[in-house]
Amino acid sequence: MEYSIGEFSKLTGLGIHTLRYYEQERLIIPQRNAANRRRYSDSDLTWADFIKRLKDTGMPIRDIRRYAALRAAGDSTIPARIELLLAHRQSLNAQIARLQEHEARLAEKIELYRQALSRGDEILPLAIFPEK
Fold it and tell me: What's the burial of 36, exposed, middle or buried (CB within 10 Å: 0-12/13-18/19+)?
């Protein structure tokens, strides 16, 4: 199936301006019809979803651009794409570990406050620091 830029925008949740930017950056390269209008395909939908996932997981646009170029170059680039994705996964796992550590510290603080409340302890307001 083929989609106009407006239809594709609605299907992907990406704004028309973003789609034009992605085309300029050579991330998504839609076909053109006889009237030179952009026509997106179902495979473009799948690719756009993957680009969004890479962005949502914090991959820098320069790495997404590199991945897109490798993808466009064909199957001979699969090893390089794997390496890029492995590096991104390693970065993502480090972020997850940091977030889990933050969540654990927050859980400890919440539990400390709950214990204080259950004992009836007075919880002092935050100190207000005077201006210098």
Answer: exposed
- State the Cα–Cα distance between residues 89 and 14, nearest whole angstrom: 24
State the burial class of residue 81 (Cβ atoms within 10 Å of its Cβ: 0-12, 13-18, 19+). Answer: middle
Q: Which residues, at least 6 apart from 77, have a Cβ–Cβ distance to it below 8 Å? A: 70, 71
User: Any idea how long the chain is?
Assistant: 132
Cα 27 from Cα 59, distance rounded (Å) = 14
Radius of gyration of the CA atoms of the chain, in A: 24
pTM: predicted TM-score of the whole model, two decimal places: 0.77
| Closest among 78, 81, 46, 79 to 66, alpha carbons compared | 81
| pLDDT score at 124 | 61
Give DSSP secondary structure letters for 93-124: HHHHHHHHHHHHHHHHHHHHHHHHHHHTPPPP
Amino acid of residue 124: L
Task: Using DSSP, state whether 38 is helix, strand or coil.
Answer: strand
Tell me: pLDDT of 125 over 70.
no
